[in-house]
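Handout, section B. The chain below has 125 residues.
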Amino acid sequence: VQLVESGGGSVQAGGSLRLSCTASGYRHTDGCMGWFRRAPGKEREGVASIDHDGSPNYAENTKGRFTISQDNAKNTLYLQMDNLKPEDTAMYYCAIAPWGYCSSRKWAIDTNYNHWGQGTQVTVS
């Protein structure tokens, strides 16, 4: 399984970005996918996840601003980020967890994910 993120960049507060994560060697029915981020000096945190049936989960600090989606035909995961804030500045990673780990209790636990991309930087000023 290989994950490749793209779409990061620098944007002013209030702006938008859309991150993409293309997966190879993976089918959406195999498990669930998530977005995590790590800001300098902070621990990695869950941003959002989406289960094989399309059910999403969001962190409280991204709910209402971020939207996770997937295009199963393209094996691509997206994260639409609107109304960005300086505190959203971080390296963003996509990841895959086995089936059953996208419940509301488990999705944000990064150790449940066994495949990770290399990350894409988002900077909000």
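Note. Residues 64 and 82 are 9 Å apart (CA to CA). Compare this with the example in section A.
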